[in-house]
Design goal:
globular; mainly alpha; 6 helices
Length: 99
């Protein structure tokens, strides 16, 4: 998936959704990729987060180090909430034009 979709979205596409100060969060572009994989494989949030921690194919798709600890499953619900908000969907849909 990474080989085909790399560069489809980047963290800058989601910059307005997150505060600029404080500790850096999980890459929104990676979370978007996890959501796509989650949908394609029919995984729950817990199973998707577990796959990010344990499966080498997920780590490769996300360009993660093998020892990356991943994230808590609740991060996916928060990301989807931002994505489905009126402002989030509008900002994301206009951030990239199809090639």
């Amino acid at each position: 998936m990474r080989d085909r979709l790399d560069g489809l979205w980047c963290d800058d596409d989601f910059a307005d959704w997150y505060p600029r100060d404080g500790r850096p969060g999980i890459s929104p572009a990676q979370l978007a990729t996890v959501c796509v994989l989650q949908f394609l494989l029919g995984l729950s949030d817990r199973k998707a987060a577990e796959a990010v921690r344990c499966r080498i194919d997920f780590k490769y798709a996300l360009s993660m180090e093998l020892d990356d600890p991943g994230f808590h499953h609740s991060v996916l619900a928060d990301f989807r909430e931002r994505l489905t908000s009126d402002d989030g969907a509008a900002a994301f849909s206009t951030s990239r034009s199809p090639a």
